[in-house]
Amino acid sequence: MAALAGFMGHNAGHNSRQGEIVDLRKVSVRDLEPLLLDEIAEWRRELAWDFEPSAQLVRKFATTNTLGGAALIIDGEVAGYGYAVLEEPRGIIGDLYVRPHRREPRHEAELFRSLLDALTETRNVRRMESQLMIPGPAAAALIREDNAARGRTVRLFERRLLSRPAGEPLPAGDLRFGSRFRLAAWEDRFLHAASAVIAGSYQGETDSLINDQYRSPGGARKFLGNIVEFPGCGTFHRESSFLAFDHESGEPAGMVLSSFVARESGHISQLCVMPAARGAGLGSELLGVATRALEARGARTVGLTVTATNRKAISVYSRFGFRDVRTFYAYIWEG
After folding, report:
1. What gap in Å lies between CA 270 and CA 197, rounded to an integer?
2. pLDDT digits (tens, 9 = 90+) for 135-171
3. Backbone angles phi, psi at 94, to 5 degrees
4. Do domains 9-153 and 164-325 have the same CATH topology?
5. Phi and psi torsions of 214, nearest 5°
6. CA atoms within 13 A on the CB side of 69
7. Angle 311-319/282-296 helices, nearest 10 degrees?
């Protein structure tokens, strides 16, 4: 997590319609702790996700006053917060959370606006990306309207968190799969090939509008590094991650990466298939082998996220027993 230096600037200290938005660096870890405990509990309860590793990073940066962000103070209480990081030329709003007893869409929209104000005023930032799990549809709509009123276009992309319980039967594999592809368990030497698979798979797809790292092998390499090395997407699980190769050409054709986001909650972090390899059952095979591997290693549930417009993928996931848990949104601004 790279802190955003000089964050908030002249935005710090402005009054919201109820409460005050302040520079997050002025908030002590002790005062932030009740909010973090609420967030940890809500992620565990609503999403079956252990937020504690991410909270630990927040505490670490907050302790050194290097976490760039904004906090909402109501009646002396830290009612909400959000932080952003720089990966020039883009800025990322990494989290935005308002405590349940203070949660209103307008509070979430005010925090979002403060974070985006600071990013748009930061030299060399030309794009903002964010995927926020907790703010709901009302907050998302207000965020879009609030920024539009300020002459700023924030695009929304609906996404869905799906999950399936362990033990439910999985569909049989496609007979065409074994004659055309072979699976290899994940090895770090696959990073280069996997980066090419991501860039090739998402070319022209909606997900490449949401995450610009999908658009090039170099960007995909950074994305993969985050999955493998950092806790935001859970703890990477090599034994449930695979790369598929075309028997004839030897070229990589698809991949699946898996994590544990809680002790008994598996998560498919990435599943993609190259265009030339589609229609032969590879995606279903990758999904099935990763799900079985996660369940064999103790996962009581397996989850994944998908963009709502990806109807083909959602149809496959439904066939594998994945059901809706939550709708959330990706937010994009481009200068």
Report:
1. 11
2. 999 999 999 999 999 999 999 999 999 999 999 999 9
3. -80, -30
4. yes
5. -75, -10
6. 30
7. 50
Q: Rounded to an integer, what distance in angstroms lies between the CA atom of residue 151 and that of residue 161?
A: 31
For 164-325, the fitting CATH number among 3.40.50.880, 3.40.630.30, 3.30.70.1130, 3.40.50.970 is 3.40.630.30
Instruction: Report the C-alpha gap between 23 and 329 in whole angstroms.
Output: 25
CATH number listed for the domain at residues 9-153: 3.40.630.30
Between CA 164 and CA 84, with CA 269 as vertex, the angle to 5 degrees is 120
| 162: three-class secondary structure by DSSP | strand
Task: Choose among 184, 42, 10: nearest CA to 114.
Answer: 10
CB 190 within 8 A of CB 295: no
**DSSP secondary structure letter of residue 24:** G
* In the chain, where the domains are located: 9-153, 164-325
pLDDT tens digit sequence for 73-83: 999 999 999 99
* Total residues belonging to the chain: 335
C-alpha closest to that of 81 among 49, 121, 111:
111
Cα 285 to chain centroid distance, Å, stands at 24
Q: Indicate if the pLDDT at residue 174 is higher than 70.
A: no
| Residue indicated by tokens 């998560």 | 267
Helices within the chain (DSSP H only): 29-47, 52-63, 105-120, 137-148, 175-180, 191-201, 207-210, 217-229, 282-296, 311-319
Read off the pTM.
Answer: 0.93
C-alpha to C-alpha distance for 109 and 242, rounded to whole angstroms: 40
pLDDT category of residue 291 using cuts at 50, 70 and 90: very high
